[in-house]
Amino acid sequence: MRPAAGYPSARRAGLRLGDLADARWVDAPDTALPLTRLRAAHGGPGFRPALRYEGTDVSVLTGLAAAGHGLVLLPRSAATGVPGTVAVPVDHPRVVHRTELVYAGAPSGAAADFVDLLVPAASRS
Fold this sequence. Notes:
- The protein contains 5 helices and 4 strands; from the N terminus they run ββαβααβαα.
- The chain is an alpha/beta fold.
- The strands form 2 sheets. Strands 1-4 form a two-stranded parallel sheet. Strands 2-3 form a two-stranded parallel sheet.
- The protein is globular.
- The protein starts with 14 loop residues before the first strand and ends with a helix.
- The model has no long low-confidence stretch (mean pLDDT 82).
């Protein structure tokens, strides 16, 4: 989770998703976990957008969070080291970021390099 550094939850070591249901959120369905998915994971109402971001640039999205426009839920790799923000893990429920590569035939070039990063060679045999 990516709050601005001054946000009350920024000082916590971890959060439950339900603790954030009434927070201000940036809805960025093409960049971060869509708010509809957060509602489904929580199993209840909440997660209302304070702002909707239609773009796909993670740096713009984290800039919106840093400026105090709302929270965003991002993978840890995108959520750490952003000036003016603090990465706070969601402890429950476990939120998993999944990357899929769909490729016809055997991947080559950059796609093969990507597969090598994601899946160890031993598990592909």
